[in-house]
Design goal:
The protein is α/β, with parallel strands linked by helices. The chain has helices at about 5, 10-20, 60, 70-85, 95-105, 120-135, 150-155, 190-210, 235-245, 300-305, 320-335, 335-360, 400-410, 430-450, and strands at about 40, 45-50, 55, 115, 140-145, 175, 215-220, 250-255, 275-280, 290-295, 365-370, 370-380, 385, 410-415, 415, 420-425. The chain is built from 14 helices and 16 strands. The strands form 3 sheets. Strands 4-10-9-8-7-5-6 form a 7-stranded mixed β-sheet, sandwiched between helices.
Length: about 450
Protein backbone atom coordinates (compact mmCIF):
# COMPACT_ATOMS: atom_id res chain seq x y z
CA UNK A 1 0.00 0.00 0.00
CA UNK A 2 1.43 3.36 -1.06
CA UNK A 3 1.05 6.58 0.95
CA UNK A 4 -1.51 7.76 -1.60
CA UNK A 5 -3.53 4.54 -1.26
CA UNK A 6 -3.32 4.75 2.54
CA UNK A 7 -4.74 8.27 2.66
CA UNK A 8 -7.90 7.88 4.72
CA UNK A 9 -8.52 10.70 7.17
CA UNK A 10 -11.50 9.03 8.84
CA UNK A 11 -9.60 5.82 9.51
CA UNK A 12 -6.61 7.75 10.80
CA UNK A 13 -8.82 9.66 13.19
CA UNK A 14 -10.39 6.40 14.41
CA UNK A 15 -6.97 4.83 15.01
CA UNK A 16 -5.85 7.93 16.92
CA UNK A 17 -9.05 8.05 18.99
CA UNK A 18 -8.75 4.40 20.05
CA UNK A 19 -5.10 4.93 20.91
CA UNK A 20 -5.86 7.96 23.04
CA UNK A 21 -8.69 6.15 24.80
CA UNK A 22 -6.98 2.86 25.60
CA UNK A 23 -3.21 2.65 24.89
CA UNK A 24 -0.86 3.44 27.75
CA UNK A 25 2.45 4.53 26.20
CA UNK A 26 5.87 3.85 27.65
CA UNK A 27 8.15 6.61 29.01
CA UNK A 28 5.40 9.21 28.56
CA UNK A 29 3.08 11.58 30.38
CA UNK A 30 -0.06 10.24 28.74
CA UNK A 31 -1.92 13.53 28.26
CA UNK A 32 1.10 15.36 26.88
CA UNK A 33 1.79 13.15 23.87
CA UNK A 34 0.30 13.08 20.39
CA UNK A 35 1.27 9.81 18.66
CA UNK A 36 1.30 9.79 14.88
CA UNK A 37 -1.16 7.28 13.40
CA UNK A 38 0.92 5.16 11.00
CA UNK A 39 -0.77 3.58 7.99
CA UNK A 40 2.10 1.61 6.50
CA UNK A 41 5.85 1.14 6.08
CA UNK A 42 8.27 -0.31 3.56
CA UNK A 43 12.05 -0.28 3.35
CA UNK A 44 13.29 2.87 5.09
CA UNK A 45 10.02 4.81 4.83
CA UNK A 46 6.66 4.95 6.61
CA UNK A 47 3.55 7.05 6.08
CA UNK A 48 0.45 8.30 7.86
CA UNK A 49 -3.24 8.29 6.95
CA UNK A 50 -2.94 11.73 5.38
CA UNK A 51 -0.45 10.40 2.86
CA UNK A 52 2.59 12.10 4.44
CA UNK A 53 5.70 9.98 3.86
CA UNK A 54 8.75 10.00 6.15
CA UNK A 55 12.29 8.74 5.71
CA UNK A 56 12.96 6.90 8.97
CA UNK A 57 16.33 7.78 10.52
CA UNK A 58 15.37 5.86 13.68
CA UNK A 59 14.83 2.29 12.39
CA UNK A 60 11.73 2.32 14.65
CA UNK A 61 13.64 1.97 17.93
CA UNK A 62 16.93 1.12 16.21
CA UNK A 63 15.89 -2.38 15.23
CA UNK A 64 14.56 -2.58 11.65
CA UNK A 65 18.03 -3.50 10.44
CA UNK A 66 16.76 -5.03 7.16
CA UNK A 67 14.11 -2.33 6.74
CA UNK A 68 10.35 -2.60 6.99
CA UNK A 69 8.48 -5.47 5.31
CA UNK A 70 11.42 -7.35 3.79
CA UNK A 71 9.55 -9.92 1.65
CA UNK A 72 11.78 -12.88 2.54
CA UNK A 73 11.36 -12.33 6.28
CA UNK A 74 7.61 -11.78 5.94
CA UNK A 75 7.35 -15.00 3.90
CA UNK A 76 9.32 -16.97 6.49
CA UNK A 77 6.97 -15.83 9.26
CA UNK A 78 3.95 -16.75 7.15
CA UNK A 79 5.40 -20.17 6.36
CA UNK A 80 6.21 -20.85 10.02
CA UNK A 81 2.71 -19.76 11.07
CA UNK A 82 1.23 -22.25 8.61
CA UNK A 83 3.50 -25.03 9.91
CA UNK A 84 3.77 -24.48 13.68
CA UNK A 85 2.71 -21.23 15.30
CA UNK A 86 4.03 -22.07 18.75
CA UNK A 87 5.50 -24.80 20.92
CA UNK A 88 6.78 -25.04 24.49
CA UNK A 89 10.46 -24.23 25.11
CA UNK A 90 11.36 -27.64 26.59
CA UNK A 91 11.21 -29.29 23.15
CA UNK A 92 13.62 -29.28 20.21
CA UNK A 93 12.00 -27.33 17.38
CA UNK A 94 13.60 -26.78 13.98
CA UNK A 95 13.24 -22.99 13.88
CA UNK A 96 14.62 -22.67 17.41
CA UNK A 97 17.58 -24.96 16.79
CA UNK A 98 18.45 -23.28 13.49
CA UNK A 99 18.22 -19.78 14.96
CA UNK A 100 20.54 -20.77 17.81
CA UNK A 101 23.01 -22.32 15.37
CA UNK A 102 23.11 -19.27 13.11
CA UNK A 103 23.55 -16.88 16.04
CA UNK A 104 26.27 -19.00 17.66
CA UNK A 105 28.19 -19.13 14.37
CA UNK A 106 28.41 -15.33 14.36
CA UNK A 107 29.06 -14.46 17.99
CA UNK A 108 32.66 -13.83 19.04
CA UNK A 109 34.75 -16.35 20.96
CA UNK A 110 33.13 -19.53 22.28
CA UNK A 111 29.66 -18.11 22.86
CA UNK A 112 28.10 -21.30 21.53
CA UNK A 113 25.02 -21.72 23.75
CA UNK A 114 21.96 -19.51 23.23
CA UNK A 115 19.29 -18.82 25.86
CA UNK A 116 16.30 -17.21 24.18
CA UNK A 117 14.23 -14.43 25.74
CA UNK A 118 11.43 -12.21 24.44
CA UNK A 119 13.44 -8.99 24.38
CA UNK A 120 16.67 -7.27 25.35
CA UNK A 121 15.71 -6.33 28.91
CA UNK A 122 15.00 -9.98 29.74
CA UNK A 123 18.31 -10.94 28.17
CA UNK A 124 20.10 -8.56 30.55
CA UNK A 125 18.05 -9.89 33.46
CA UNK A 126 19.15 -13.46 32.76
CA UNK A 127 22.76 -12.55 31.98
CA UNK A 128 22.98 -10.92 35.41
CA UNK A 129 21.46 -14.00 37.04
CA UNK A 130 23.85 -16.34 35.23
CA UNK A 131 26.87 -14.27 36.25
CA UNK A 132 25.84 -14.14 39.89
CA UNK A 133 25.20 -17.87 40.12
CA UNK A 134 28.36 -18.75 38.17
CA UNK A 135 30.61 -16.63 40.42
CA UNK A 136 28.68 -16.81 43.69
CA UNK A 137 29.12 -13.04 43.99
CA UNK A 138 26.40 -10.39 44.44
CA UNK A 139 27.50 -7.16 42.71
CA UNK A 140 27.32 -6.11 39.08
CA UNK A 141 29.10 -3.04 37.74
CA UNK A 142 27.60 -0.87 35.01
CA UNK A 143 28.48 2.44 33.42
CA UNK A 144 26.85 5.83 33.66
CA UNK A 145 25.55 6.86 30.23
CA UNK A 146 24.05 3.44 29.59
CA UNK A 147 20.70 1.77 29.07
CA UNK A 148 20.06 -1.90 29.82
CA UNK A 149 16.27 -2.24 29.81
CA UNK A 150 13.21 -1.63 31.96
CA UNK A 151 12.92 -4.85 33.97
CA UNK A 152 13.90 -4.71 37.66
CA UNK A 153 17.55 -5.65 37.10
CA UNK A 154 17.86 -3.93 33.74
CA UNK A 155 16.61 -0.58 34.98
CA UNK A 156 18.85 -0.68 38.04
CA UNK A 157 21.84 -1.40 35.80
CA UNK A 158 20.88 1.55 33.58
CA UNK A 159 22.92 4.70 34.00
CA UNK A 160 20.62 7.29 32.43
CA UNK A 161 17.73 9.16 34.12
CA UNK A 162 15.14 6.57 33.18
CA UNK A 163 16.47 4.63 36.16
CA UNK A 164 15.79 7.29 38.78
CA UNK A 165 12.13 6.58 39.53
CA UNK A 166 12.76 2.82 39.88
CA UNK A 167 16.18 2.78 41.56
CA UNK A 168 15.87 0.62 44.68
CA UNK A 169 19.27 1.62 46.01
CA UNK A 170 19.72 -2.00 47.06
CA UNK A 171 20.02 -3.89 43.78
CA UNK A 172 23.68 -4.88 44.09
CA UNK A 173 24.73 -2.42 41.37
CA UNK A 174 27.94 -0.39 41.35
CA UNK A 175 28.32 2.29 38.68
CA UNK A 176 31.45 3.71 37.11
CA UNK A 177 32.43 6.15 34.36
CA UNK A 178 33.23 4.65 30.96
CA UNK A 179 35.39 6.62 28.51
CA UNK A 180 33.86 9.55 26.61
CA UNK A 181 36.54 12.02 25.57
CA UNK A 182 34.20 14.80 24.41
CA UNK A 183 32.78 15.07 27.94
CA UNK A 184 35.63 13.39 29.77
CA UNK A 185 35.13 12.83 33.51
CA UNK A 186 38.89 12.30 33.71
CA UNK A 187 40.05 15.68 32.28
CA UNK A 188 41.76 13.81 29.45
CA UNK A 189 42.96 15.57 26.32
CA UNK A 190 43.59 12.56 24.06
CA UNK A 191 41.96 9.19 23.41
CA UNK A 192 45.03 7.52 24.89
CA UNK A 193 44.71 9.48 28.13
CA UNK A 194 40.97 8.84 28.28
CA UNK A 195 41.49 5.10 27.83
CA UNK A 196 44.25 4.83 30.44
CA UNK A 197 42.42 6.96 33.02
CA UNK A 198 39.10 5.17 32.48
CA UNK A 199 40.77 1.80 33.02
CA UNK A 200 42.51 3.05 36.15
CA UNK A 201 39.21 4.45 37.46
CA UNK A 202 37.53 1.10 36.84
CA UNK A 203 40.30 -0.79 38.60
CA UNK A 204 40.25 1.63 41.54
CA UNK A 205 36.47 1.21 41.85
CA UNK A 206 36.86 -2.56 41.88
CA UNK A 207 39.57 -2.33 44.53
CA UNK A 208 37.41 -0.23 46.85
CA UNK A 209 34.29 -2.36 46.28
CA UNK A 210 36.20 -5.60 46.85
CA UNK A 211 37.07 -7.71 43.78
CA UNK A 212 35.69 -10.84 45.43
CA UNK A 213 32.22 -9.27 45.65
CA UNK A 214 31.84 -8.45 41.96
CA UNK A 215 30.10 -10.97 39.72
CA UNK A 216 30.12 -9.07 36.43
CA UNK A 217 30.85 -5.90 34.54
CA UNK A 218 28.23 -5.09 31.90
CA UNK A 219 28.95 -2.66 29.08
CA UNK A 220 27.12 -1.69 25.94
CA UNK A 221 29.92 -2.49 23.50
CA UNK A 222 29.07 0.78 21.75
CA UNK A 223 26.50 2.61 23.92
CA UNK A 224 23.28 3.31 22.03
CA UNK A 225 20.59 5.60 23.41
CA UNK A 226 23.13 7.13 25.80
CA UNK A 227 25.06 8.66 22.92
CA UNK A 228 26.87 6.24 20.58
CA UNK A 229 30.27 6.74 22.20
CA UNK A 230 32.69 4.42 20.38
CA UNK A 231 35.23 3.27 23.01
CA UNK A 232 38.85 4.27 22.40
CA UNK A 233 41.33 1.67 21.17
CA UNK A 234 42.55 -0.49 24.04
CA UNK A 235 39.65 0.12 26.41
CA UNK A 236 37.64 -3.05 25.88
CA UNK A 237 40.76 -5.26 25.79
CA UNK A 238 41.77 -3.53 29.05
CA UNK A 239 38.41 -4.32 30.65
CA UNK A 240 38.75 -7.92 29.47
CA UNK A 241 42.15 -8.17 31.17
CA UNK A 242 40.82 -6.72 34.43
CA UNK A 243 37.91 -9.15 34.42
CA UNK A 244 40.21 -12.10 33.80
CA UNK A 245 42.52 -11.03 36.61
CA UNK A 246 39.73 -10.83 39.20
CA UNK A 247 37.49 -13.64 37.98
CA UNK A 248 34.75 -11.20 36.94
CA UNK A 249 32.29 -12.12 34.19
CA UNK A 250 32.38 -9.68 31.25
CA UNK A 251 28.96 -9.03 29.70
CA UNK A 252 28.57 -7.12 26.44
CA UNK A 253 25.11 -5.67 25.85
CA UNK A 254 24.70 -5.77 22.06
CA UNK A 255 20.93 -5.36 22.04
CA UNK A 256 21.19 -2.22 19.91
CA UNK A 257 24.69 -2.49 18.42
CA UNK A 258 24.41 -6.11 17.24
CA UNK A 259 23.41 -7.73 13.96
CA UNK A 260 25.08 -5.39 11.50
CA UNK A 261 24.32 -2.03 13.07
CA UNK A 262 28.01 -1.02 13.37
CA UNK A 263 29.11 -2.64 10.12
CA UNK A 264 30.08 -5.91 11.81
CA UNK A 265 27.85 -8.75 12.96
CA UNK A 266 28.61 -7.61 16.51
CA UNK A 267 30.30 -4.43 17.70
CA UNK A 268 32.75 -6.58 19.69
CA UNK A 269 34.27 -7.64 16.36
CA UNK A 270 35.69 -4.12 15.90
CA UNK A 271 37.78 -4.54 19.05
CA UNK A 272 38.73 -8.23 18.82
CA UNK A 273 37.38 -8.89 22.31
CA UNK A 274 35.09 -11.76 23.31
CA UNK A 275 32.87 -11.38 26.38
CA UNK A 276 31.72 -14.24 28.60
CA UNK A 277 28.06 -13.39 27.99
CA UNK A 278 26.51 -11.35 25.19
CA UNK A 279 22.94 -10.04 25.18
CA UNK A 280 21.06 -9.46 21.94
CA UNK A 281 17.59 -8.59 20.61
CA UNK A 282 16.25 -5.92 18.21
CA UNK A 283 18.10 -6.55 14.92
CA UNK A 284 18.14 -10.34 15.30
CA UNK A 285 14.62 -10.38 13.77
CA UNK A 286 14.64 -6.77 12.54
CA UNK A 287 11.91 -6.36 15.14
CA UNK A 288 9.36 -8.28 13.04
CA UNK A 289 8.61 -10.63 15.94
CA UNK A 290 9.99 -9.95 19.45
CA UNK A 291 13.09 -12.01 20.28
CA UNK A 292 16.14 -11.59 22.48
CA UNK A 293 18.70 -13.80 24.10
CA UNK A 294 21.96 -14.44 25.88
CA UNK A 295 24.93 -16.02 24.12
CA UNK A 296 26.88 -18.02 26.72
CA UNK A 297 30.51 -19.15 26.77
CA UNK A 298 31.71 -22.65 27.61
CA UNK A 299 32.72 -21.99 31.20
CA UNK A 300 29.36 -20.53 32.21
CA UNK A 301 27.44 -23.14 30.23
CA UNK A 302 29.37 -25.82 32.15
CA UNK A 303 28.11 -24.37 35.45
CA UNK A 304 24.62 -25.45 34.42
CA UNK A 305 25.56 -28.73 32.73
CA UNK A 306 24.50 -30.82 35.73
CA UNK A 307 22.82 -28.16 37.83
CA UNK A 308 19.51 -26.71 36.71
CA UNK A 309 19.49 -23.11 35.58
CA UNK A 310 16.85 -21.41 37.76
CA UNK A 311 15.13 -19.39 35.09
CA UNK A 312 12.94 -19.63 32.04
CA UNK A 313 10.24 -17.99 29.96
CA UNK A 314 6.96 -19.30 28.58
CA UNK A 315 7.84 -18.10 25.09
CA UNK A 316 11.61 -18.78 25.14
CA UNK A 317 12.59 -19.53 21.55
CA UNK A 318 9.10 -18.91 20.19
CA UNK A 319 8.93 -20.59 16.75
CA UNK A 320 7.54 -17.53 14.92
CA UNK A 321 10.26 -15.33 16.38
CA UNK A 322 12.98 -17.88 15.66
CA UNK A 323 11.78 -18.28 12.06
CA UNK A 324 12.04 -14.50 11.71
CA UNK A 325 15.58 -14.63 13.12
CA UNK A 326 16.63 -17.38 10.71
CA UNK A 327 15.25 -15.43 7.75
CA UNK A 328 16.77 -12.15 8.91
CA UNK A 329 20.24 -13.62 9.39
CA UNK A 330 20.08 -15.44 6.04
CA UNK A 331 18.91 -12.28 4.26
CA UNK A 332 21.73 -10.27 5.84
CA UNK A 333 24.22 -12.89 4.69
CA UNK A 334 22.83 -13.37 1.18
CA UNK A 335 22.43 -9.66 0.45
CA UNK A 336 25.69 -8.51 2.07
CA UNK A 337 23.78 -6.18 4.39
CA UNK A 338 26.45 -6.11 7.13
CA UNK A 339 29.10 -5.17 4.58
CA UNK A 340 26.76 -2.59 3.09
CA UNK A 341 26.23 -0.99 6.49
CA UNK A 342 29.99 -0.67 6.94
CA UNK A 343 30.49 0.79 3.48
CA UNK A 344 27.66 3.32 3.53
CA UNK A 345 28.78 4.46 6.98
CA UNK A 346 32.39 4.93 5.92
CA UNK A 347 31.77 6.34 2.43
CA UNK A 348 28.50 8.30 2.73
CA UNK A 349 27.04 8.90 6.18
CA UNK A 350 30.23 9.55 8.15
CA UNK A 351 31.80 11.99 5.65
CA UNK A 352 28.50 13.82 5.13
CA UNK A 353 27.95 14.25 8.87
CA UNK A 354 31.45 15.70 9.26
CA UNK A 355 30.66 18.12 6.42
CA UNK A 356 27.47 19.15 8.21
CA UNK A 357 29.47 19.72 11.38
CA UNK A 358 31.84 22.01 9.52
CA UNK A 359 28.91 24.16 8.34
CA UNK A 360 26.69 24.16 11.40
CA UNK A 361 27.95 25.73 14.66
CA UNK A 362 25.32 23.77 16.62
CA UNK A 363 27.18 20.51 15.94
CA UNK A 364 29.77 19.92 18.63
CA UNK A 365 30.86 16.41 17.72
CA UNK A 366 30.16 13.64 15.22
CA UNK A 367 30.79 10.02 16.21
CA UNK A 368 29.77 6.56 15.08
CA UNK A 369 30.25 3.45 12.96
CA UNK A 370 28.25 1.77 10.19
CA UNK A 371 24.67 3.04 10.45
CA UNK A 372 25.09 4.01 14.10
CA UNK A 373 25.92 7.73 14.43
CA UNK A 374 25.30 10.62 16.82
CA UNK A 375 25.51 14.38 16.50
CA UNK A 376 26.15 16.21 19.78
CA UNK A 377 24.29 19.53 19.54
CA UNK A 378 25.66 22.47 21.54
CA UNK A 379 25.05 26.15 22.23
CA UNK A 380 28.76 26.89 22.30
CA UNK A 381 31.46 24.79 20.67
CA UNK A 382 34.19 26.26 22.83
CA UNK A 383 32.52 25.49 26.17
CA UNK A 384 30.61 22.45 24.82
CA UNK A 385 27.46 23.64 26.58
CA UNK A 386 24.68 21.28 25.44
CA UNK A 387 21.91 22.72 23.28
CA UNK A 388 19.51 21.71 26.08
CA UNK A 389 20.31 20.83 29.70
CA UNK A 390 20.81 17.23 30.82
CA UNK A 391 17.45 15.43 31.01
CA UNK A 392 15.61 18.59 29.93
CA UNK A 393 11.84 18.62 29.58
CA UNK A 394 9.13 21.14 28.77
CA UNK A 395 10.32 24.56 27.71
CA UNK A 396 13.93 23.69 28.58
CA UNK A 397 13.86 21.12 25.78
CA UNK A 398 12.33 23.53 23.24
CA UNK A 399 15.42 23.87 21.02
CA UNK A 400 15.52 20.12 20.38
CA UNK A 401 11.77 20.16 19.83
CA UNK A 402 12.18 22.86 17.19
CA UNK A 403 14.95 20.87 15.54
CA UNK A 404 12.82 17.71 15.47
CA UNK A 405 9.86 19.61 14.02
CA UNK A 406 12.09 20.99 11.28
CA UNK A 407 13.22 17.45 10.40
CA UNK A 408 9.64 16.23 10.12
CA UNK A 409 8.68 19.21 7.97
CA UNK A 410 11.40 18.05 5.55
CA UNK A 411 10.02 14.49 5.52
CA UNK A 412 12.65 13.06 7.89
CA UNK A 413 11.74 11.24 11.11
CA UNK A 414 14.62 11.93 13.54
CA UNK A 415 15.94 10.11 16.60
CA UNK A 416 16.26 12.77 19.31
CA UNK A 417 17.53 12.19 22.84
CA UNK A 418 18.57 14.98 25.23
CA UNK A 419 20.91 17.26 23.24
CA UNK A 420 21.64 14.72 20.50
CA UNK A 421 20.23 13.48 17.26
CA UNK A 422 21.19 9.98 16.20
CA UNK A 423 21.47 8.88 12.59
CA UNK A 424 20.42 5.24 12.79
CA UNK A 425 18.58 4.22 9.60
CA UNK A 426 18.13 0.64 8.44
CA UNK A 427 21.31 -1.16 7.43
CA UNK A 428 19.79 -1.46 3.94
CA UNK A 429 19.52 2.27 3.28
CA UNK A 430 20.74 3.17 -0.20
CA UNK A 431 23.18 5.95 -0.99
CA UNK A 432 20.39 8.01 -2.58
CA UNK A 433 18.12 7.54 0.46
CA UNK A 434 20.95 8.42 2.85
CA UNK A 435 21.71 11.59 0.91
CA UNK A 436 18.02 12.52 0.93
CA UNK A 437 17.91 12.20 4.71
CA UNK A 438 21.18 14.04 5.19
CA UNK A 439 19.92 16.93 3.05
CA UNK A 440 16.85 17.19 5.29
CA UNK A 441 19.10 17.07 8.34
CA UNK A 442 21.13 19.93 6.86
CA UNK A 443 18.01 22.12 6.72
CA UNK A 444 16.91 21.19 10.25
CA UNK A 445 20.34 21.93 11.72
CA UNK A 446 19.92 25.53 10.58
CA UNK A 447 17.09 25.72 13.12
CA UNK A 448 19.38 24.36 15.83
CA UNK A 449 21.97 26.97 14.82
CA UNK A 450 19.54 29.72 15.85
CA UNK A 451 20.07 28.74 19.49
CA UNK A 452 23.88 28.94 19.36
CA UNK A 453 25.23 31.59 21.69
CA UNK A 454 28.99 31.18 21.35
Amino acid sequence: MTPHEAADLAKGQAVKAADRAHVFHSWSAQELIDPLAVAGAEGVHFWDYEGNKYLDFTSALVYTNVGYQHPKVVAAIQEQAATMTTFAPAFAVEARSEAARLIAERTPGDLDKIFFTNAGAEAVEHAARMARIHTGRPKIMSAYRSYHGATATGINLTGDPRRWASDTGSAGVVRFWAPFLYRSPFHAETEEQECARALQHLEDTIAFEGPGSIAAIILETVPGTAGIMVPPPGYLPGVREICDRYGIVLVFDEVMAGFGRTGKWFAADHFDVAPDLLTFAKGVTSGYVPLGGVAINGAIAETFARKAYPGGLTYSGHPLACAAAVATINVMEEEGIVEHAAKIGADVIGPALHELAARHPSVGEVRGLGVFWALELVRDRATREPLVPYNASGQDAAPMGAFAAACKKEGLWPFVNMNRTHVVPACTITEAEAKEGLAALDVALSVADEYVTG
